[in-house]
Design goal:
Strand 1 (8-12), helix 1 (16-28) and strand 2 form a beta-alpha-beta unit. The N and C termini lie far apart (27 Å). 38% of the residues lie in helices and 21% in strands. The chain has one domain (8-120): Rossmann fold. The chain has five helices and five strands; from the N terminus they run βαβαβαβαβα. The chain has a five-stranded parallel β-sheet with strand order 2-1-3-4-5, sandwiched between helices.
Length: 125
Amino acid sequence: MSAFPSRVIHVVDDDDDVRDSLRALLEAFGFTVRTFASAAEILGAGEDADCLLVDLHMPGMSGLEFLELLRARDIQTPAIVVTANGEKLGPRMARAGVLKTLHKPVGDDELLEWIERACARKIPL
């Protein structure tokens, strides 16, 4: 039996290798995973998720701009931002509803802990 049955995670990252490795890790723990290469791609999908795992820096719309747009549309899906840079965007991240900012490379245990926390906060639509 999977550890996290029926939990849906949307991964938004422009790096194919990152998306593939996150999918493999999360599916191994029983999550259902959908991956998207950009904010524009996920916006066109129109699907619900228990948690968003979003890269901060992507071509076109950044991860933070994407989350701000969702919040403006009153979509409150819990979100975790992943970044390779250590920039401090604390207040803006908080306003965009970011539960946690993780810095690459992220350890598996830390990532899974925060995804579990995010899924526990899921607010039904």
